[in-house]
C-alpha cells in the first residue's frame, strides 16, 4: 500500500541536493550569545512549533520533539533560559484512545493535558542540573485551531 509520507530512503536522497550550496545560518559562537530557549513538543506532524508559533527554520529556539512531548524524555542542562510547550491529542496511535490510556506504561494515565503539562513543568523546575532562574512556561496546543493556551502552576 502506497503511503503519502516519504520513506527514510527518500529523505536521505534529498540530502545530496541539500549539501551542494549549504551555508550554516548561525555559528556556534553566535548561537551561544543568544538567549537559550527550548521548546518541547510532540512528534505529531500537526504539532510543529515552526507552524503554530511561526519559528523560522534554522533559528532558535531549540526544538525537542518526542512521543507525547514529555519533558522526562529530552532536556538536559544546556544553558537553557526558557522552555516549554505541549500538544493536546494522542495523535496517530492505533486503536481507541481508551485502549491506549488503559495501558500500564501510558505516560498520561488519569491526567488531563493541563495536569500532564504541570507535571512536566514541575519536573523541569526540580532538575538540580538546571539553573534556578530558568523560566519554565507550559502550553497546550489545540491541533484543531492551532491555538496555544498557557497552563499556569
From TrEMBL:
InterPro entries attached to this UniProt entry: Carbonic_anhydrase (IPR001765), Carbonic_anhydrase_sf (IPR036874)
Record-annotated membrane-spanning stretches: none
Co-factor binding details: Binds 1 zinc ion per subunit.
Keyword list, A-Z: Metal-binding, Zinc
Domain of life: Eukaryota
Co-factor requirement: Zn(2+)
Record: residues binding Zn(2+): 42, 44
Gene Ontology molecular function terms on file: carbonate dehydratase activity; zinc ion binding
Family (UniProt): Belongs to the beta-class carbonic anhydrase family.
Protein name: Carbonic anhydrase
Source organism of the structure: Didymosphaeria variabile
